């Protein structure tokens, strides 16, 4: 699958490395062309402009700090219209660890409104170090990865990409529920800033075998 990643930071590197290992065709675009090119070389992928990455994409990942979201969305425009767009971002300010978006409005919904893409919120509840783990297992349980969105095809793509990195997909609702995933991230981010290890996670725990869980 052709995946374009907008952003060249730790999340782009951690997720991109696992996706290239599974045979996906990646292109990296970012505010710094040199940084994007360096990451692309590291991942054995390609780099390009925002417009080139939009044309390349069968699915896109937007992985930038929320402070840089306006810049990124301005350059993407509606270039991702009609395709799956995965949003792993958290608009959380780190002084009071509260959401920087207006009440009831998620970053994911904003991205959907600007790009016209079929946005799925996913991968936002863990530090990049978790995604780098060769086996994302905690207390003997594989990591459950919540995701939400409106479009069935985009949700199926996101679930497949979650499985590609070794996670267990857990659908948590439609795109309106992205606000709650972002709020949940504020809790875990506060814990990380408070000194907990970067591999600290929330995980789904029940008495059912993993094979019986539903997406």
The end-to-end span amounts to: 21 Å
CATH topology (level 3) name: Rossmann fold
Which structural class should the secondary elements be placed in?
A: alpha/beta
**Relevant CATH superfamily:** NAD(P)-binding Rossmann-like Domain
| Number of spatially distinct domains | 1
- Quick one: how many beta strands? 12
Order of helices and strands: EHEHEHEHEEEHEHEEEHEH
Notes on the structure:
With 215 residues, this protein is of the alpha/beta class. The chain has a single domain, classed as 3-Layer(aba) Sandwich (Rossmann fold). It is built from eight helices and twelve strands. It has an eight-stranded mixed β-sheet with strand order 3-2-1-4-5-8-11-12, with helices on both faces. The chain has a two-stranded antiparallel ribbon with strand order 6-7.
Topology:
Layout: E1 2-6, H1 10-21, E2 25-29, H2 33-42, E3 46-47, H3 50-56, E4 59-62, H4 69-76, E5 84-87, E6 92-93, E7 98-99, H5 107-115, E8 118-122, H6 128-131, E9 137-138, E10 141-142, E11 144-149, H7 152-164, E12 168-171, H8 178-193
Parallel strand pairs: 1-2, 1-4, 2-3, 4-5, 5-8, 11-12
Antiparallel strand pairs: 6-7, 8-11, 9-10
Give a brief rundown of this model.
By secondary structure, the protein is an alpha/beta fold. It contains 8 helices and 12 strands.
Main traits of this protein?
215 residues; globular; eight-stranded mixed β-sheet; alpha/beta; single chain; Rossmann fold; 8 helices; two-stranded antiparallel ribbon
